[in-house]
Design goal:
2 domains; globular; six-stranded parallel sheet; two-stranded antiparallel ribbon; 8 strands; Rossmann fold
């Protein structure tokens, strides 16, 4: 995977995707629901099996039809070990967990705090359902209003903005809110198709958060990768 090579003094702002970067589907809820499918082998490896399956599904989205969200649910069910004859029940479980409140990624709260303290401007750009700002605030990750947690300049939710990734316009909303030029910003996302490609089309630098190193092979070396948020802050915060 391509390492982080960009000079840190070239970056004034860090903009984050939400799902897969700051938030993840609730592994404990997934475990409880999957217990009803009798998937004991996968459950014994929880929550690592759950997280690995999530990022495997994101890799599937990078390679599949861009309208394939139901297929991504299927890919996650398969990756978590649901038997072929129970795959539809597995997809239903994935739908239930995706619709429930998500949980904070380990280190997300500290990462945003460290970046803010280091002087970086921050924002979030997410394809969501109109509630991502409230979810981030509920979990204490960041807020545009609450001074008791890390402040960000904008939380851009596709449902409210009327435009989705990878359209460069959604990234420009955040850049305008921060008053930052695209080439002075870094976007962190968990997909190539929607996050990396979209941010680069907007003129931003992009980093692919890929904890299980799924992004390999020809055509995947044109952008930097990290395996976690600590790697990001260790690079940016000196």
């Amino acid at each position: 995977m391509a390492p982080l090579t960009l000079a840190t003094d070239a970056i004034d702002a860090v903009i984050f995707d939400a799902g897969g970067v700051l938030l993840l589907p609730d592994a404990h809820l997934g475990q409880a629901l999957f217990a009803g499918l009798g998937n004991d082998e996968a459950l014994s490896a929880w929550p690592d099996a759950w997280y690995r399956a999530y990022y495997a599904a994101m890799r599937f989205l990078d390679q599949a039809d861009p309208t394939g969200q139901p297929s991504a649910r299927r890919a996650m069910a398969e990756a978590v070990g649901v038997a072929p004859d129970r795959i539809e029940a597995g997809v239903s479980v994935m739908d239930q967990v995706a619709a429930a409140p998500w949980t904070a990624v380990d280190g997300a709260v500290q990462a945003l705090r460290d970046l803010s303290d280091a002087g970086y401007k921050l924002a979030v750009v997410s394809d969501s359902n109109g509630t991502i700002a409230q979810e981030l605030e509920r979990l204490g990750i960041c807020s545009v209003d609450d001074s008791d947690i890390t402040r960000v300049g904008a939380v851009v939710d596709s449902h409210l903005a009327g435009v989705e990734k990878p359209n460069p316009a959604i990234f420009r909303i955040a850049l305008d809110a921060l008053g930052i030029e695209a080439d002075r910003s870094l976007y962190v996302g968990d997909t190539v198709r929607f996050d990396v490609a979209g941010a680069q089309a907007a003129g931003m630098h992009a980093v692919h958060l890929d904890p299980f190193s799924f992004c390999t092979g020809p055509g995947n070396q044109g952008h930097s990768h990290i395996t976690g948020l600590l790697e990001l802050t260790s690079w940016l915060v000196r």
